[in-house]
Amino acid sequence: SFLISPETRIRTQGAAPIWMSTTTVNADMIPRVKAVEATEPTKSPVVVKGWVRTIRKQKKLAFVEVNDGVKSSLKGIQCVVTFDEVDEETIEEISKVSTGCSVAVTGLLVESRGGKEQSIEMAATSLRVVGMCPPDLYPLAKKRHSLEYMRTIAHLRPRANTVAAVTRVRSVLAMAIHSFFQKAGFLYVQTPLITASDCEGAGELFRVTTLDLENVSELPLQKNTTKVDFSQDFFGKPAFLTVSGQLGAETHACALGDVYTFGPTFRAENSQTTRHLAEFHMVEPEMAFSDLNAAMDNAEAMLKFVVEEVLDKCQSDLDFFVRFFDKGLKDRLAKVVSQPFARVSYREAIEYLQEEITKDPSKWQYPDVEFGTDLATEHERWLAEEKFDSAVFVYNYPKSIKAFYMRDNDEDGGETVNAMDLLVPGVGELVGGSQREERLEVLETKMKELDLDPKDYWWYLDLRRFGTVPHAGYGLGFERLVTYVCGVENIREAIAFPRYPGNAEF
Fold first, then answer.
1. Contact, 226 vs 260, CB < 8 A?
2. How far apart are CA 191 and CA 186, in angstroms?
3. What's the DSSP call for residue 116?
4. How far lies 471's CA from each of 4, 186, 320, 412, 452, in Å?
5. What's the distance, CA 221 to chain centroid?
6. What distance in Å separates the CA atoms of residue 406 and residue 475, rounded to the nearest whole number?
7. Closest CA to 121 of 41, 54, 20
8. Which residues pair with 195 in a beta bridge?
């Protein structure tokens, strides 16, 4: 057995900081070293624990690459098992080792005797198989698999380089987001996942119910109608999974100042594109006593901060993405950090697009662009990649294509709203935000125009009724950020278990 005691951070002579654990090998306390920390030779034994990536057996020795997946480490550590220098049980265990099995290997860290990719290797004195992995059944052979195939075995795909690297970058991004907002004095609030409100007014909601849908004839109906009576459901009214935490975050911003949410959201959009998921995460700050310019300033500072964190902490993973996915990735990310974001009004953006499309309409999938057009991805990417060659904020969108809560612009009689989208090269829209409509009468009128029942939003209207303030915020799709920073095309690689139409496995 391999029982691990509570881990304690220690330093050992001639080694980087490592984790201390107890293993029954030699019945001694043996310090455990993570592969990424194995940077110097040691004078006393250490133990490496992980999963076998490759094994090469020769007549007198075996080479076992062990990967523990921690930090930014695509490569594991090579363990050299010399048969004349190990115990008999290790010789027996070597015969059981195959790709995918878990092992604990004990020995000295020494300078590598071959190869330029790794300066340190382990001279093993003992190897024990912790968990077997039958090679005839294991679906992850050494060869490279397609990302589509890997999604069918999502429970195992973190063992593959691409998803492992994405997961490490995702972790750094998540921590960087929290760090940015915490350092800026924002409060982290958790808004409900179950709601009766449609934040976007789009109607693409997952319903939450405890009614027996398998027994349709017994569903309670409203009097003299065929409509379901949700007053008899669990919540006493229709309930849904949220598409956004924004409305809830506004309640706290209007009392506590600057807040942010970071949590799962859901949208029942029947889309199979590479940009959409049914379950995803949103980062949504709300700032009291702020306008649209403040929201754009904050979004720019936040994105620069988190990208710089990845550039600093995930070099080997970024090198992997450059090699296999996007040759210009690191240069593009460096430009995000170093170059100010451009800003252009929606009207100007439309004029630029019309001028460009006129040159050759056949190059465009959607050549018809005019005021009121909801920009397509090809339009967004042209603005970011060709026109400005940088991240660019497009602001002051037509009221007709934006959500009800966005503040009408006074200067054009409410034809546009004080809204913005942040467009980035390679992706298109990454952030969407606005100054919120803080005027009670204006907001009530807009809700009636969109056939939204004010009774469902009574609490939201109260924020305008009692001590209203100008406030603004934005939403960042976290998985879209992950794809952008990693240079991978499909958003289904940016989350552990992607949910999309027809797929809810695992």
1. no
2. 15
3. S
4. 51, 14, 41, 20, 22
5. 41
6. 13
7. 41
8. 240
Tell me how far CA of residue 240 lies from CA of 118, 203, 213, 235, in angstroms.
Answer: 52, 10, 16, 10
Backbone angles phi, psi at 158, to 5 degrees: -60, -15
Name the nearest CA neighbour of 294 among 335, 258, 333.
258
Q: Measure the CA–CA gap between 46 and 106, rounded to whole angstroms.
A: 6
Q: Are 282 and 294 in contact (CB under 8 A)?
A: no
Q: Beta partners for 78?
A: 65
- With beta carbons less than 8 A apart as the criterion, state whether 298 and 285 touch: yes
Tokens 């990208």, located at residue: 307
Q: Which residues of the chain are under the pLDDT cut of 50? A: 1-27, 72
CB atoms within 10 A of CB 43: 10
Looking at residue 43, its amino acid is K
Closest to 141 measured CA to CA, from 168, 154, 167, 159: 159
Q: Are the CB atoms for 324 and 146 separated by under 8 Å?
A: no
Q: How far apart are CA 202 and CA 369, in angstroms?
A: 23
* Residue whose C-alpha is closest to residue 46's, from 66, 73, 69, 74: 66
Burial class (CB in 10 A: 0-12, 13-18, 19+), 118: middle
Q: To which residue do tokens 């063992």 refer?
A: 159
Q: What are phi and psi of 78, to 5 degrees?
A: -80, 125
- Measure CA of the first residue to CA of the last residue in the chain; give whole Å: 29
What is the 3 state secondary structure string of 266-316? ECCCCCCCCCCCCEEEEEEEEEECCCHHHHHHHHHHHHHHHHHHHHHHCHH
List, for residues 299-325, the tens digit of each pLDDT value. Answer: 999 999 999 999 999 999 999 999 999
Q: Taking the model in full, what pTM does it have?
A: 0.90
Q: What is the pLDDT of residues 432-487, one digit of tens each?
A: 999 999 999 999 999 999 999 999 899 999 999 999 999 999 999 999 999 999 99
Helix axes 161-183, 292-313, angle to 10 degrees: 130
Instruction: Return the exposure string of 456-493: e unless at least 16 CB atoms fall within 10 Å of the residue's CB, then b.
Output: ebeebbebbeeebebbbbbbbbbbbbbbbbbbbeebbb
Other CB atoms within a 10 A radius of the CB of residue 115 amount to: 9
Q: What does 215-246 look like in DSSP terms, one character per residue?
A: -GGGS-B-TTSSSB-GGGSTTSS-EEE-S-SH
Backbone angles phi, psi at 413, to 5 degrees: 70, 25
Tokens of 297: 């300033």
In Å, how far are 167, 208, 250, 404, 481 from 265, measured between CA atoms? 19, 14, 16, 19, 15
